[in-house]
Amino acid sequence: QLQLQESGPGLVRPSETLSLTCSVSGGSITTTTYYWGWIRQPPGKGLEWIGTIFYTGTTYYNPSLKSRVTISLDTSKNQFSLKLTSVTAADTAVYYCASGRESPPYAFDYWGRGTLVTVSS
Amino acid sequence: EIVLTQSPAALSLSPGERATLFCRASQSVSTYLTWYQQKPGQAPRLLIYDASNRATGIPARFSGSGSGTDFTLTISSLEPEDFAVYYCQQRTNWPRVTFGPGTKVDIK
User: Fold this and answer.
1) Per the CB < 8 Å rule, is A107 touching B91?
2) Taking a C-beta distance cutoff of 8 angstroms, is the pair B4, B25 a contact?
3) Would you call B50 and A48 a contact, using CB atoms and an 8 Å cutoff?
C-alpha cells in the first residue's frame, strides 16, 4: 500500500518560490503503472489540479499555472517535488500529493495528508 | 476547457435518508467522470470512477450513474460517516483533470 507524505515550508514570501516534496513509501516512483500528481485546495474552497508526472519524467500541467510550475522526480530518494514560482496570496492553500494508476481507475487513489502553505510577508 | 457544475451546493439530510448529488459538464465527458469524498481536515478519497464503478473498499450504498454531460452520485442510506463534501472530476483529456466545486452533505 502506497503512503505519501508532503514536506516543505509552511510560509512563503510573495514573489518567491514555493517548494514542496512528496516522499513515497510502499512502492517505487519508477513503477511503470503509477503516475504522481499535485493538487491544491485554498482554505474553504475546492480542489485544483496542479500537474502530473509519469515515471518517464513526462509532465502535464494545469494551463492556468503552467508558466510557473515545475514537477520533477528524485528517483534516488523515491520522492517527487513541486516548484511554483512568483507566488502571491492566491497561492495560499493546502497542497496535496497523490498517485494514480495508468489503468482503471485512472484516478488519484492514494493521497498524502496535505500541507498548508501560506503566502505572506 | 470543460467546466463542471455541481448541485445542490449543500444538502441537509438525516442519517438513513437517501442523498442524490448532481454533476453537470459543459460538454460531453463520455463516462470519464470520477467522484471523491472529502471530510474536514482530510485528503479526498476516491469513491467512484468512470461514472459508475465503485473504487476498492467503497460500500455498496454509494452508486454513480450518467454519461455525456449529466451524472449522479447516490448514497442510498446515509451513515454518520458519510457527511462530507463530494467532488466530481472529469478526465476527458487525461492526465489533465478538472474538478467541480463540490456539494456539502451535512446533518439535518
Assistant:
1) yes
2) yes
3) no
Contact A49 B96 (CB under 8 A): yes
Task: Evaluate if residue B33 carries a pLDDT over 90.
Answer: yes
Distance CA B86, CA A20 (A): 26
Count of C-beta atoms within a 10 Å radius of residue A68: 16
CB nearest A108 (choices: B1, B46, B98): B46
Measured in degrees and rounded to the nearest 5, phi and psi for residue B71 equal -135, 155
Tens of pLDDT, residues A71-80: 999 999 999 9
pLDDT number for residue A32: 86
A-interface mutation test, from B92, B94, B104, most A Cβ less than 10 A away = B94
Write a three-state SS string for chain A. CCEEEEECCCEECCCCCEEEEEEEECCCCCCCCEEEEEEEECCCCCCEEEEEEECCCCEEECCCCCCCEEEEEECCCCEEEEEECCCCHHHCEEEEEEEEECCCCCCEEEECCCEEEEECC
Give the separation between CA B52 and CA B61, rounded to whole angstroms.
Answer: 12
* Contact call for residues A62 and A53 (beta carbons, < 8 A): no
Nine cell digits for residue A87? 507566488
Nearest chain A residue to B97 by CA: give it: A49
